[in-house]
Amino acid sequence: MAGMLFLCAAALLLLAAGEAIPPPEEAARMARFVLHNCDWGALATLSAQEGLRGHPFANIFSISDGPPGPFGGSGVPYLYLTDMEISVQDLEINSNASLTVSLAQTPYCKKHRYDPQNPLCAHIIFCGSIVKVNDSEAGLAKKALFSRHPEMESWPKDHNWFFAKFNITNIWVLDYFGGLKIVTPEEYYSVKP
User: Fold this and answer.
1) What CA–CA distance (Å, rounded) separates 109 from 106?
2) Domain containing residue 86
3) Is residue 67 part of a domain?
4) Per residue in 109-125, pLDDT tens?
5) Among 22, 65, 153, 158, which is least packed, fewest CB within 10 Å?
């Protein structure tokens, strides 16, 4: 446990110092970097709820692509979900979603006094779908999520929690001036953060 805390602290120090930020010409690496350094994201679904049906609905979810540290990320955003959650109910009707993660949740943007809307405070938009993980991937998802969100282990068992992943089909990176950059999932998974 102490080793895990040390790795997490070291990663945050590097991030705060700005030394580990990939350069703007490496958009795929930036996407991996931002996802790996974020603990939560805004997940947008199409609402299936009465009065909101068909409208966009964004909600905050804890995420993880692997244990903290410079070499722990798979690039796959994992989530711990329950059917009792309103966005999960939306996903049961239409599994398509988008997930936005931003360095605004890290010390990096505050240190540089970047507003969350400033392109230099990088954010990534993933589009795709949410799928339950199969039994062979559940252990990986559990390790990824519980290493960053240890409180999850004590959440009420009667809520029927399950592991899911964001199946990425499209990626947009905003990390510099000049507009969005498009990264393919193949490019994204071929690099390390």
Assistant:
1) 7
2) 40-190
3) yes
4) 999 999 999 999 999 99
5) 158
